[in-house]
Amino acid sequence: MTIAAAPAPSRPLTHRLGLGGLRRVPAVVLIAFAVLALALVVTLFAQFMMPYDYDAMNLRARLTPPLPWEGSNPAHPLGTDKLGRDVLSRLLIATQTSIALALLGTIIGAVLGTVLGFLAAHFRGIVDEVISALVDFQAAMPYFIIALAVLAFMGNSIVVFLFLMAIYGWEKYARITRGLVLSAREEGYARAQHALGAGPLRTYGIHILPNIVSPLIVQLTVNFPDTILFETSLSFLGLGVRPPLTSLGQMLGDGRDYLVTAWWLAVVPGLTIFLVTLAMSIVGDFLRTHLDPSLQD
Amino acid sequence: MSVRFVIVKLLRAILTIWLVVTFVFFVLRLSGDPVAQLLPDDVDKQTVQFYRELWGLDQPVGVQYLRYIEALLQGDLGISFRNNLDAFQLVMERVPKTALLGGTALLFALGFGIPLGIYAALHRDTAIDRAIMSVAVFGFSLPNFFLGIMLILIFSLQLRWLPSSGSGTWWHLLMPAVTLGTGFGAQIARYARSAMIDVTNRAYMRTAEAKGAGQTRKLYVHALPNAAIPIVTITGMKIGELLGWAVVTETVFAWPGIGRLLTSAVAMRDLAVVQCIMLILAVTMVSANFIVDLAYGWLDPRVRAQRQGER
Amino acid sequence: MTALLTASDLTRSFRAGRKRMFRPAPRFNAVDGVDIEVARGETLAIVGESGCGKSTLGTLLLGLAEPSAGRVLFDGQPVRGRGGDAWRRMRRRIQVIFQDTNGSLDPRLPIFAQVREPLDIHRIGARAERDARTRAILGAVGLGPHLWQHVPGELSGGQQQRVVIARAAILEPEMIVCDEPVSALDVSIQAQVLRLLRQLQRDMGLTMVFISHDLAVVRHVADRVAVMYLGRIVETGSAERVFQAPQHPYTQALLAAVPVPDPARRTARVLATGEPPSPMNPPPGCRFHPRCPHAVPRCRSEVPALRPIAGRETACHVAGALDAEITRIAAE
Amino acid sequence: MAPVLAAQGLSVAISTRDGRTVTPVRNISLALDAGETLAIVGESGCGKTMTCLALSGLLPRRAQVTATSLTLAGEDLATLDRRRAREVRRQRLAVVFQDATNGLNPVKSVGWQVAEAVRLRAGGSRAAASAEAQRLIGRVGLPDPARIMRAYPHQLSGGMNQRAMIALAVAGNPDVLVADEATTALDVTVQAQILTLIAELQREVGMGVVFVTHDLGIVAQIADRVAVMYAGRIVESGPVGEIFAAPRHPYTAGLIASLPRIDRRERDLSVIEGQVPPIDAMPDGCAFAPRCQRAADDCRRTSPPLARLGGVHAACLHPLREMA
Q1: Is B302 on the interface with D (CB under 8 A)?
Q2: Partner residue opposite A4 with nearest CB, options D275, D279, D281
């Protein structure tokens, strides 16, 4: 049904950049943004924020519960663990590790996927066939489980882990980029550019790339929670980040053994993971409807 | 459905399985000597050599691979290093447990996700729609290991209603299935909602309305058969993810399925068992995709026609 | 009159359907052995229904696609120039206005920058001069300064079409190929755009190839027409002759089917039965014969060539005979 | 004879997502006699499709349709409740849309969809409906009806799907057929066939046809009476002959003059400058005034009512004179 498509009245610049209606951001989204901002601050400055060294043991103050509970100690607002280490300090460092890893992994994966998508769309033919086959293969195999096996056998290497996280999800960017570039080339402005005599570099750099950036950013926000969950799950199983390093998943996995005696060791990192992924999902949903209404599932 | 279609699908399935198996094989071989891992530190060199020869690990990797594939084609999946049992049997003993857990979780996810998503779509932009979708966002943001732990804390440790680990009774199944199904169900609800909204905006729905079809008829006869197509697609695509989460869930609840077996096998470097599990998982995923393909043909006459070679 | 653009025996084939194992993919000719000449300063219209290959022919004439056979010469030079430089020089001389205005504009860039872009691409003039020329052409197509910093989505369809026209005209090309330039527009806006095109043509001495399915619009703009059916030209000649007295049965059916906006003349008639078959699987012989009311057995087997009949060229076995018959009956 | 379909003071208001209300159709009146063809003509955004959806009861719920009266086959739909009104429309009124290929359900066979329409409108057994569907499919000129019954929309061309849509519409002999741009997506030779088909069926069944289109050529060829819409209002209506021979409203006259014609070559088309005002920024007074060469100060203040002028009705304060 066509509800009279009147010509759009002129709009301010924020609208033109696709940021229309940012003034009417719902409270939930604002809170989510705040949570993410806090997480980012922690990621950047955890070392300066933690009250104790995250590895400093204090065997006389083991398993202190967090603040409002009986037997708590204001010096350890989130309590201490089995070795008397300060949970807050550990949480800050763990958050830093988890988010930094997920961010790096997501960005590497996004760049890799985008580049491969561009290559597939530009060269077509055999390049396209190979890249598309890789995309299909990636989507058709139980990647998490394979990653699990690889990690277990390759051992305690943060490089391997990062590599696996980057590979996770690249195919989504490749698929989106390929589709967008192809449609721009086949019937869109890229064809018009060609007719004007513009070279491919100009067309990609000035026209196509800026136009596919917002769907890619949306995909980034959609993928980021998945990547965090990927990291935390593997670390939870004891296969990703391992001591002496710590991450949210690793903390949670450790804390699981003390559920009966010290529930906070599991709940504190678990809740943190939940809050970060929830905030990211909310922000992602918001960006998806405002940056790119065409990209619905 | 044409023979050609089946053959192409079959070839592609075999290719996928072969790629997974090969990839896993080489990764496992390139990551150090499993014998050293399995035997106590103080055994003498002769014992090590004995086991290396016994398991064929003294051969070059290429030879090992050819032998492995040869054995695989004869249905021999090797012997577990740990307890000298047939790896395939060891794995198959665990399969029913995982199938039970995965199947229940899937039913749970679809049974809640699809109706809720459709209900939300039909009441688009109302309070109930927003409520359902908010719950869905919570649902899939909730890491399932955390959900599992919370459930154990509340229902096992605090209330003492449900057992926290193991299997055996239906009570044992309840928490793991809910844990595994929640995130999946939340995603299904979102996809079902957008599929349904897409369908209700289509021109043929207006045609049905113009014919004078009632609400029920429009929903069940006209909208659902169309909305089912993307929902089936997404379900098939997400089966792999579900399997991954099953490993985590089994660990949380000490559920004796192949996920638990896998985590213990990788910890012990039990090559044959790990390879066997990977093979079974790959076959499962490929079969799931095949079933989705079949469902496609059944649901969508456009696909059916394409397969019969029409234009 | 010298031909500015000459195309001979032009063919463009596409893959029909999917490739099968051990068998080459079936192919079909979207454009099948077309000869065309366009004289300097004239407007040649290519008309036909959907799937007749007129848009494909347009991209071949522009040099945007490689023909499977035949070649296109523009002012004596191949239109698909060898090497980047020759290609770019040719782009300055031939421009295009595509059917989908909205799709052919960058949705993110203000229109001023988009209209100036051809000058940037071809490095014409200094920055100030480019801006001046852009302002001039935007004024000439009737887009006021208050619109210049808008993005295409904020303009109406007619305004977008003006942007596209300005972008094509700013290079001062010798020829413009217009592919359905007004078919998405409302009648009142269509008239505005047609007037603008005509003005530009007069002012710049443009040669135009005008591709359209709308026969009334074609009649309004064209000096000569070529009527296409399933990849082939079935009739071509001066617009006046073809529209006054069409010779090919397809042209006759086409013209008879157009509703005339005059209730006193209810003349719309159905002269062709059925629908055009798929271009992937065209009938043998004369491709129009299954729908033709005058078809004879010969039409089923023998492909008719274009031949001069009544002052234009027609590809029909019976056309001349019909003509003669009518003349004979009229004489009696 | 009472008209088979009549609307008095029909308006459509839609609340947009950001809380404003727009009125794409404002206070229009129409009447259609049995066997007659009424053409509603106008450019995009003039409200003709909204009018057609309002008549057919197909607007979404967030659109409010108001009318002094809206009678279909003797029953005033404006006074009936929603269910009963739908019942009357189902029996009496059928609709054909522009895009037939998307208008048919892709997962159901064509025969099933036509038979469903037969059963919904006329009742009867499955077998009888199926037989009737096959008869209708043959009647609308589709070759090999038995095969088409089993075919799916994607297997047929646009023209064939439009024929199937017409079969579906005329099932059970409705009193009124509303056709919204029913031939716009088709090639001109196929369009001519479809127009002929609709005219034939109209004669056979004796139904009234409301034909919504932007194409003045089609209007001239098939309409008995015409309503010209601009910016949500009817600006001129009357018998087709008089409207084309002597339009009284400057917009109608401008529209006819700006049309390229197949039957003669004109050097220059006359042009209506400017464009339709956006729906949320309608000027006070006559909506056409900003584009009208005859507009005076009073046009910008008062909105002219539709008034009788000779053989036609026109909504203009300074109408064109009768031409010779």
Answers
A1: yes
A2: D279
Neighbours of chain A (3+ CB pairs under 8 A): B, C, D
CA distances from C137 to B279, C145, C170, C198 (A): 67, 11, 6, 15
**The domain boundary residue, chosen from D193, D223, D253:** D223
| Helices D158-170 + D110-122 axis angle, to 10 | 20
With respect to residue B72, please indicate whether it lies within any of the assigned structural domains. no
C324's CB contacts (< 8 A; 6+ apart) are none
ipTM above 0.90 for this complex: no
CB atoms within 10 A of CB B158: 10
- The domain spans of chain C are 3-93+173-331, 110-171
Q: Structural domain of residue B167, as residue ranges?
A: 87-309
- Sheet of D225-230, strand order: D93-96, D176-180, D208-213, D37-41, D225-230, D233-239, D312-314, D307-309
**Residue D320 lies inside a defined structural domain of this protein:** no
Range D198-226 average pLDDT: 93
Q: Which of D163, D192, D223 is the last residue of a domain?
A: D223
Residue A155 DSSP class: -
What is the identity of the amino acid at C221?
A: V
Does C156 sit within 8 Å of A7, measured CB to CB?
yes
pLDDT tier, B51 (very low <50, low <70, confident <90, very high otherwise): confident
Tell me if A6 and D278 make a contact (CB, 8 A cut-off): yes
Residue among A4, A7, A9 whose CB faces D24 most closely: A4
**Other chains touching B, judged by 3 or more CB pairs under 8 Å:** A, C, D
Residue B30 placed within a domain:
no
Q: How many CB atoms lie within 10 A of CB A258?
A: 15
Strand partners, D65: D12
For chain D, how many structural domains are there in total?
Answer: 2
Tell me which chain B residue has its CA closest to the CA of residue C278.
B311
Q: How far is CA D130 from CA D88, D93, D112, in A?
A: 23, 21, 8
Lowest mean pLDDT: which of A198-207, B36-45, C98-107, D304-313?
B36-45
C-alpha distance from B191 to closest chain A C-alpha (Å): 7
pLDDT digits (tens, 9 = 90+) for C191-242: 999 999 999 999 999 999 999 999 999 999 999 999 999 999 999 999 999 9
B129 and chain D in contact, CB less than 8 A: no
pLDDT value at A11 more than 50? no
Is the pLDDT reported for residue C25 higher than 90?
no
pLDDT of residue D12: 93
Contact check, Cβ <8 Å, D14/A7: no
According to DSSP, the residues that pair with C176 across neighbouring strands are C95, C208
Of the candidates D219, D230, D121, which has an alpha carbon nearest to the alpha carbon of residue D170? Answer: D121
Cα torsion for B150, B151, B154, B158, to the nearest 10°? -110
Each residue's pLDDT tens digit, D73-120: 888 888 888 888 888 998 899 999 888 888 999 999 999 999 999 999
**Rounded CA separation C208/C156 (Å):** 25
Residues C16-26, mean pLDDT to the nearest whole number? 62
Same domain, D203 and D270: no
Q: Check CB contact under 8 Å for D189 and C272.
A: yes
Return d(Cα C157, Cα C159) in angstroms, integer.
Answer: 5
Q: Give the domain extent around D251.
A: 230-314
Mean pLDDT of D172-188: 90
pLDDT tens track for B205-240: 999 988 888 888 999 999 999 999 999 988 888 888
| pTM, two decimal places | 0.84
| Same-domain status, D142 and D191 | yes
Residue D81 domain-assigned (yes or no): yes
- The structural domain count of chain B equals 1
Q: Which CATH architecture has domain C3-93+173-331?
A: 3-Layer(aba) Sandwich (3.40)
User: A25-47+80-295 has which CATH code?
Assistant: 1.10.3720.10
Cross-strand bridge partners of residue D6: D31, D71
